[in-house]
Design a protein that fits this description.
- The structure holds two protein chains of two kinds.
- Chain A folds into two domains: 76 residues, ACT domain (Alpha-Beta Plaits, 2-Layer Sandwich); 72 residues, ACT-like. Chain A, domain 2 (Alpha-Beta Plaits, 2-Layer Sandwich), CATH 3.30.70.1150.
- In chain A, 27% of the residues lie in helices and 41% in strands.
- Chain A contains four helices and nine strands; from the N terminus they run βαββαββαββαββ.
- In chain A, strands 5, 6, 7, 8 and 9 form a five-stranded antiparallel β-sheet that branches. A four-stranded antiparallel β-sheet of chain A has the order 2-3-1-4, covered by helices on one side.
- Chain A starts with a strand and ends in an 8-residue tail after the last strand.
- By secondary structure, chain B is an alpha/beta fold.
- Chain B has 21 helices and 18 strands.
- In chain B, strands 2-1-3-4-6-5 form a six-stranded parallel β-sheet, sandwiched between helices.
- In chain B, helix 1 runs parallel beside helix 6, helix 14 packs across helix 15 and helix 14 packs across helix 21.
- The radius of gyration of chain B is 24 Å and the shape is globular.
- The N and C termini of chain B lie far apart (59 Å).
- Classes of the chains: A alpha+beta, B alpha/beta.
């Protein structure tokens, strides 16, 4: 069956236990979570969960309907990837040496990634970009020894339109 | 006023008459306050049955049933009852005591994360953190439980909150929930489309589920069916939507349903599913019911539409409103040929049974029993072979048929019948169970006795877990495993021990006389029917 990707931007009441309820819904109904990012919005009683999921058309529709059924969910906005601007933040610690230091810095420059911390043997790289470009950067570092990686998961907002009401 | 008093005030404001439950330390403030209230308390013998009894009551009153249990094991025991209600969309308010707020999370005595544990079996749950929130929480809970797609709501109240002073008590007039606004009225365009399809259809059929009863739309549906002569079939939860002998009613669908009902549904060119989930027992191949026909799916829960089968016309809303809207337009239709075809099927495809005369034939017995029951009687079927026979042969006139459909929880009938009887003391309520399901709830005989609630219980006894035995017969070549109920108690002695009258029926010869005695009995009565251990529902 064809698997499509969807981005759900879910506004929820900023209460304890809500993340658990939403995540529980996905596991209980065997829906995939490809990534999940949560944070407060400009209104501190509202949080925004950005959930990336994949599945067939019926599953993707069920996800939206089941999310809407949850009483702590205020609004669900469903997007295809191309409809929105997506960003993800990644921090990556790598071990470097004299031979590859130059190469690492060049890759960072090309990929618009920054070196945000450093010691004699290690450096930390930060990149904020689309999930696709983050994957690309990870590929570029495959020959270099990656020590640790932390990623936020995808954040997304619909592209700006005239008469945009959010 | 403390938190517990406030809870009782809320229940009174919601016109709650009965609370089923089981006390423990963490719910003691509640049970202390309720002594000052006219609300009746029923001490159930195990917490699961508190939820079942509340379910029976809710289904008869149309209002949420209430149960109150203690923390820890009290709360975890109630879960099966809550899940049973959730599966059948029965509104319940489940109050659980909880350990002191400050101790939550430290695994103290009788602490259980009940809101976490029931998350997938409740419509919503609350953990009350401030006693002043109690009026709002209860107002919301009753609203949530009994609107939209109904279901259980659990309210977990730590003992210190029950004891805390409530500075101001005002029961809210309205709820203000920005995230919860169920769609009740059907979309006019969709309604037009459905009526348009009815005009085109040659072989329409309505398949009614439990949602029709929950929205109390039986009258509207029946009138619509009668006016245009549209045949109706039902799911298990929809039994009672039409009187069993109504000329437009063609039985229960599904793998345990009537063959002619399934055939009618399969051969229709317009299938209107209303308040039904298209779940596996009713529709074993959901894809098939969309083939070669127009499928209209009416449900108050948008997530049910398209979950198991993709409808041609989705229609979100409450059945009562939708059938009222349907009735606003006059249709020129004639389905006489289709009806006569279905009447022929009903005649030709009657199940043929060959019962052994040395036993009670459950089919004949249930036909006779239900035929003799009052017009408005409540028939409560348990789970197992007894349920399938009840669904197949019980005649519902103007009464109700209650059972656990979605979850199939054994032991449901005895506590649910208790709740039904308390809701309608003047109506005849009969619980029909097997000897397996009986033993799952037989401790409640004491509850009936203690609270002077009249019980009428039929036990179809075959010394087997018959439904599983039948499954093992078909699927494991009679390789019976753990289905023999030897060691069961002597029901005559048991009845005597609980102060029940007892009747035993060992063959059909004296069935009529015994049923009359059973139904006329003023005292609580248990009737044992000895049925063929090898009998099959199919």
């Amino acid at each position: 069956m064809m698997k499509d990707k969807r981005i759900y931007s879910v506004l929820v009441e900023n209460r304890s236990g809500v993340l658990c309820k939403v995540a529980g819904l996905f596991s209980r109904r065997s829906f995939n979570i490809d990534s999940l990012a949560v944070g407060e919005t400009d209104d501190n009683v509202v949080s925004c969960m950005t959930i990336v999921s994949s599945g067939d058309e019926r599953t993707l529709e069920q996800i939206e309907k089941q999310l809407n059924k949850k009483l702590d969910v205020i609004k669900v906005k469903t997007y295809e990837e191309k409809q929105c601007v997506t960003r993800e933040l990644m921090l990556m610690k790598v071990k470097y040496n004299k031979n590859n230091r130059r190469e690492i810095m060049e890759i960072c420059e090309v990929m618009n990634a920054q070196i945000v911390d450093m010691s004699i043997h290690y450096m930390m790289i930060q990149i904020c970009d689309t999930p696709e470009r983050i994957r690309l950067l990870l590929n570029m570092f495959q020959s270099i020894s990656i020590v640790e990686v932390a990623r936020t998961g995808t954040l997304a907002l619909a592209k700006c339109m005239e008469n945009d009401e959010g | 006023m403390n938190g517990a008093d406030a809870i009782i005030k809320c229940l009174e404001a919601e016109d709650v008459r009965v609370v089923f439950g089981y006390p423990g330390v963490a719910i003691c403030p509640f049970y202390n306050s309720i002594l000052e209230s006219p609300i009746r308390t029923v001490l159930i013998r195990t917490e699961q049955n508190a939820a079942h009894a509340a379910s029976g009551l809710a289904r008869m009153t149309g209002r949420p049933g209430v149960c109150a249990v203690t923390s820890g094991p009290g709360a975890t025991n109630v879960i099966t009852g809550v899940a049973t209600a959730f599966a059948d969309s029965i509104p319940l308010i489940v109050i659980t005591g909880q350990v002191n707020s400050e101790l939550i999370g430290s695994d103290v005595f009788q602490e259980a994360d009940i809101t976490g544990a029931v998350e997938s079996f409740v419509k919503y749950s609350y953990l009350v953190k401030d006693a002043n929130d109690i009026p709002r929480v209860f107002k919301e809970a009753f609203h949530i439980a009994n609107t939209g797609r109904k279901g259980p709501v659990l309210i977990d109240v730590p003992i210190d909150i029950q004891n805390a002073t409530v500075s101001r008590f005002k029961y809210p007039e309205e709820v203000n929930l920005r995230t919860y606004k169920p769609t009740v009225k059907g979309h006019a365009v969709q309604i037009k489309k459905v009526l348009g399809e009815l005009k085109k259809a040659k072989r329409p059929i309505i398949c009614a589920g439990g949602g029709v009863l929950l929205s109390e739309a039986e009258g509207e549906l029946r009138a619509f069916s009668e006016k245009y002569r549209i045949p109706v079939v039902s799911t298990m939860m929809g039994i009672g939507v039409m009187p069993t002998r109504h000329p437009m009613y063609f039985g229960m669908v599904g793998n345990n349903g009537k063959p002619y009902a399934n055939r009618a549904m399969n051969e229709s060119d317009l299938l209107i599913m209303v308040g039904a989930r298209v779940a596996d027992r009713a529709v074993s191949q959901p894809d098939l019911i969309t083939q070669g026909k127009v499928l209209v799916h009416i449900d108050v829960d948008p997530a049910e539409i398209g979950k198991n089968a993709g409808p041609t016309i989705p229609l979100v809303g409450d059945a009562k409103h939708i059938f009222r809207d349907f009735a606003k337009e006059e249709l020129e239709v004639d389905y006489r040929d289709w009806i006569s075809t279905l009447e022929r099927y009903r005649e030709e495809m009657r199940p043929r049974r060959s019962p052994r005369p040395e036993y009670v034939d459950p089919a004949a017995f249930i036909t006779l029993l239900s035929g003799k029951m009052d017009e408005d009687a409540v028939y409560v079927a348990d789970v197992g072979q007894n349920q399938i026979w009840s669904c197949g042969y019980a005649e519902v006139k103007k009464g109700r048929f209650l059972t656990s459909g979605g979850m199939g929880t054994m032991g449901y009938s005895i506590p649910a019948a208790m709740g039904a009887k308390l809701a309608c003391p003047d109506r005849q309520v009969v619980a029909v169970c097997g000897d397996g399901s009986f033993q799952m709830s037989m401790m409640e005989l004491a509850t009936y006795r203690q609270h002077h609630i009249q019980a009428k219980i039929i036990v179809l006894k075959n010394n087997y877990l018959g439904m599983v035995r039948e499954f093992q017969h078909y699927n494991y070549k009679d390789h019976y495993s753990v289905v023999d109920l030897s060691g069961s108690p002597d029901l005559e002695k048991l009845s005597e021990a609980y102060g029940f009258a007892f009747l035993r029926l060992s063959d059909m010869e004296r069935a009529e006389e015994m049923i009359d005695r059973f139904l006329k009995s003023e005292e609580s009565v248990l009737m044992e029917c000895l049925i063929d251990p090898m009998d099959l529902v199919k």
